[in-house]
Specification:
globular, eleven-stranded mixed β-sheet, mainly beta
Length: 177
């Protein structure tokens, strides 16, 4: 049965039947926004913002603020639960010794993509990663998961960004990440 589900899912994904819903709300852009994650489960969105000090520099001990926008509950902000932080959407940010102007953001759920945080000017930063083999600024991710079991199984992740050289939109779909 599981093999059949995977085969049917693969066929549907290749035809574009599964994809980020067009009617999902888009979180408002802010000066602190790095990127966001949306999921097929519901419209609630995980936000990744920067933490700056009063001079506009990243706070080294905690440069990224991760939280929910609960669209199904009057768009209120809600902190991640401990289990979500540890196993799904939380992350660790470590300054790179080899290049101290970058931080490596390691998401709890996956290490398939290298996410680099860099401050570009006071009160401004971005996440850089390769999307479809092009160095890009990450805008958002969409995660499609099978939530029917005890533990959700990620079927695919879509990455959306902008090529840092051309400014063109970039896209990549990671299947069975």
């Amino acid at each position: 049965m599981r093999k059949l589900f995977i085969i049917v899912s693969a066929i549907l994904m290749s035809t574009g039947v599964f994809s980020q819903p067009k009617n999902y709300p888009v979180p408002p852009e802010t000066k602190k926004r790095l990127f966001f994650i949306q999921r097929n489960h519901n419209e609630n969105t995980v936000i990744y913002d920067t933490n700056f000090d009063k001079n506009g520099n990243l706070i080294e001990s905690n440069p990224v603020d991760v939280y929910w926008i609960r669209y199904q509950e009057q768009e209120q902000r809600m902190e991640l639960r401990a289990i979500e932080r540890r196993f799904a959407f939380g992350g660790k940010c470590e300054k790179l010794e080899s290049n101290p102007e970058y931080y490596l953001l390691k998401l709890a759920a996956t290490d398939k993509k290298k996410l680099l945080l860099k401050q570009t000017s006071p009160f401004k930063a971005a996440i850089y990663t390769k999307i479809n083999n092009k160095m890009s600024v990450l805008h958002h991710m969409y995660i499609f998961a099978d939530n029917s079991g005890i533990k959700p199984t990620v079927i695919y992740i879509e990455l959306f960004g902008k090529d840092i050289k051309t400014g063109q939109k970039t896209y990549e779909k990671l299947i069975n990440p």
